[in-house]
Design a protein that fits this description.
Number of domains: 3
Structural class: alpha/beta
Radius of gyration: 25 Å
Strand content: 15-25%
Shape: elongated
Largest sheet: 6 strands, mixed
CATH class of the largest domain: Alpha Beta
Number of strands: 14
């Protein structure tokens, strides 16, 4: 099991090789959540993920022969980019096995960094099986994404940096996939501050580390928006560390993560992927459930990555606007006569809403033949504004309901 000294040595080795990312207080999130929230922006690394740390710390130990033969790893994207990036810098051939569902942006970035990318299987574990086979047949050195002492020590440098900036933190909230990140951070944090709480976060779709800690066997899902922590096989080394040093593991839903991504974009003006938003998702979920365990605490949250597909992000922004009442759909029943549509659009305009889409529904409706349903998609100021629009339309005799 790694010690604080291993992480301190990794810290020295990483100087000049990675970005010492900001760890700053979020005034707005603190006010919203009733706690003192500090954010560690690992999404600002060159490859937009903390994975660079562990990848370099492991690869610097390779022998000359190993460097010549090359390295291989399996990854859903971020570790792949970390290995590819440092392999390119160090002149080492790299092969990356990635699941087929890996976001296009992560595949493209890995190839751009000069690595040979092999897409295989539906899950990380499918990719893992092929990577182990190729490592043996092609004499490549495996750079494991999480179950490796040097990798864990590299990730643990994040804990050192956080506590150097804010030594009196009460709690650290860290996403968990295979467990390398939280194992390193927990080792560093508990050595420096034994009383600090370390809380892990997994998705309800992939709660395999939480299950392993409690010796449970489960069957999870196959997809999640947080593909960076979608790991079915927890590490042997990481599981042991987590059992000893992590205080609790909480689960969050896909909806929680989506909400957290949009919240960070809107409030902090920072882009994170699903895994990167898991920590904030845990805090937002607790607040929605009236769980006061985090209230009043000084909390460090790791934003572990920012590699999200732009199309996915665009969809999440729209869905976030719908939840906030800033994008809504109203269904209005009108007589199918000249001027009727003009009348309702003018009423909506008078309330200050902006109509972005209009759809007439004549065939698929139970209304009389002389009537028509009109769906209006519009930009609004919030739920109270939507209620004002509905009241205005109904006062003028139109039957209007929310269409969402």
């Amino acid at each position: 099991m790694i010690q604080l000294s291993d992480i301190e040595q990794a810290r020295e080795a990483l100087k000049g090789q990675i970005v010492e990312t900001p760890f700053t207080h979020s005034r707005t999130l603190s006010e919203i959540l009733g706690a003192e929230i500090w954010l560690k922006f690992e999404n600002l690394q060159f490859t937009a993920s903390f994975k660079e740390r562990g990848a370099y710390n492991r690869m610097r130990t390779l022998t000359a022969e190993q460097r010549q033969n090359g390295v291989i790893t399996m990854s859903a994207g971020n570790h792949a980019q970390g290995v590819a990036y440092h392999a390119q810098r160090m002149g080492i051939p790299a092969v990356i096995v990635m699941p087929k569902f890996t976001p296009t942006v992560k595949v493209a970035n890995t190839r751009r960094l000069g690595a040979e990318v092999v897409l295989h299987g539906e899950t990380f574990d499918d990719a893992r099986a092929l990577a182990l086979e190729l490592a043996e047949t092609r004499h490549l050195t495996l750079i494991h994404p999480y179950d490796d002492d040097a990798v864990i020590a590299g990730q643990g440098t994040i804990g050192l940096e956080m506590l150097e900036v804010k030594p009196d933190l009460d709690m650290l909230i860290v996403p968990i996939g295979g467990g390398g990140l939280i194992s390193g951070i927990a080792t560093a944090a508990k050595a420096l501050r034994p009383e600090i709480e370390v809380i892990g976060v997994q998705t309800e779709a992939f709660p395999y580390m939480a299950a392993a800690v409690h010796n449970q066997t489960i069957k999870g899902a196959t997809r999640t928006i947080a593909e960076g922590i979608a790991v079915k096989t927890p590490g042997i080394k990481t599981l042991e560390i987590i059992r000893q040093k992590v205080d609790d593991i909480v689960l969050v839903s896909e909806r929680d993560i989506e909400y957290a991504i949009v919240t960070l974009l809107e409030i902090e003006k920072t882009v994170v992927e699903g895994a990167g938003a898991a920590g904030l998702a845990a805090l937002l979920h607790a607040q929605s459930m009236d769980d006061s365990r985090f209230e009043g605490k000084k909390i460090g949250v790791v934003l572990c990555g920012g590699n999200i597909d732009p199309l996915v992000l665009g969809g999440l922004i729209e869905r976030g606007m719908v939840r906030a009442g800033r994008l809504t759909r109203i269904r209005v029943s009108i007589h199918d006569l000249p001027g009727a549509l003009s009348q309702i659009t003018q009423l909506v305009a008078d309330t200050g809403a902006n109509i972005t889409q209009v759809n007439h529904q004549r065939a698929f409706t139970s209304l009389p033949a002389q009537d028509v349903e009109v769906d209006l998609v519009m930009q609004t100021r919030g739920h109270e504004h939507v209620d004002e629009i509905l009241t205005t339309l109904r006062t003028q005799g139109f039957r209007a309901v929310r269409g969402d």
